Every structure is written in structure tokens, then in C-alpha cells.
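Standup notes
- DV: blocked on the single-chain target, sequence here:
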Amino acid sequence: MTNPLLAETGLPAFDQIRPEHVAPAIDVLLRQADEALEQAVGPDVPAEYDALSAVLDVASERLKLAWGAVSHLNAVADTPELRAAYTAALPKVTELFARHASDERLYAKYKALAARQLSPARRKALSNAMRDFVLAGAELQGADKARFQQLQEQQADLAQKFSEHVLDATDGFAHYATAAEMIGVPDDVQQAARAAAQADGKEGFKLTLHFPSYFPVLQYAQDRGLREKLYTAHVTRSSELGKPELDNSAVMRVTIQ
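- DV (later): unblocked, structure below
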């Protein structure tokens, strides 16, 4: 079976990506990224812009493209299986990006590159890269560097929990509107809402907080009470006003230690 996350050309094949593709593809791309780093910092790759980019950027961009596709699907087409695959891969991806961003050997090569004559565009790109190395902890040593990476991993874990709560709260809301409430809403939106209600065995029109349902109601519905109901539900997702298990208040108050 061909893994769509390992395709080397074209745009992400979102319709073909399955949860079972995530772990094997990400493991391959993580290994290739680490191999590219070791090659880039080795003696055979000079401290030259094109040489470093040809080795390191190709592998890192492949990983970023695949992980970006998985992250996007996890945000917009969440399933328990995909969430589990994403959550399992997240610590490994976070650890690699944090480690590469603070690698002292690679930082040294970029410093050597800074002494060369570069075009204005490349000098600006290099300046940004040097800044990012510092911000990623490349100048930290020993326990401080390990601590910095631990904080980044903890932050990634909290961000994932926050996103999961918002997504679950969004998916968990439904309002079955009457025909009178739907006055002003475009016909195609009404048809989709009626079909969604019928699929649930309900009367009326099923409205959710997903954008294709939520936004047209806010924009066109004449019923002010309906607009207020959906707006209030939208802006209070994952708050203390909703289900306790989806409340992000505690997540936002976590002191990273």
C-alpha cells in the first residue's frame, strides 16, 4: 500500500490519508530528517547556503508538509483514530523540531555562513535563521537546554489539549431551528440544515458551530434571538459556561514548570 504522506510531489492527498498512515510515514520522515542533519553538520557539506539547503531543507520540508497535512485533518476532520495517531506522533515531532532548532553544530555552520558574501535576500534569510537559533535555545548549555526542550514539549501537549477541547465543543453543539427562525437564511443553507436534521431523526433545521452552518446564520438570519444563540455558543466554547470536561480554563492557567 502506498502511503500518501510519503509522496514526494504534488499537493497533499487529503482524501487518501488515513490514521494508519500517520505513524509509519512520520517515523520514516523523522529518521530522514535526522540523517539529513547529521549529513549537514558533517565535514562533507561546506558552510555554503546552497549546500546546506540542498541537504537539510529538503528533508525538513517533507516532514513539515506531511505533518502539516496530518495536523490540518486533525483540526477539521477529527476522528478518534486520527486523534490517537496525531497525539502519539506529536511528542516525537515536537522533540525533533526543538532539537534541530537548537543544534550547536548546525548553529556553528550558520555562523560560518554569515562570514560569506550573500545577496541581500539570502542575508536577510540567514539573519532570521540566526535569530531563530537563539530563540530556540541554541546558545543554552547542559541542564538549561534540556529544560528548554522540556518546556517546548509541555507547551505542545497543552496546545493539543486546548485544540481538542475546542473541537469537541464545536462538534457537540446543535440547535434545531424552526422555519420561522430560518427566515432570511439562503436556500442552500436551509436545505443542508434540513437534511442534517432529518439524518438525526429530528424536525426542523440542524444548525451547528461549523463555519458553513454558523456563518450564514450570523450573516443572513432575520431572527435576532437565533443569531444571539449561535454567537453565544460560539464564543463560549470550551469555557466555564459549557461542559466541565471541555473547559479550557484550567489549561490556560497551567504554569509550565
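- Follow-up: The radius of gyration is 24 Å.
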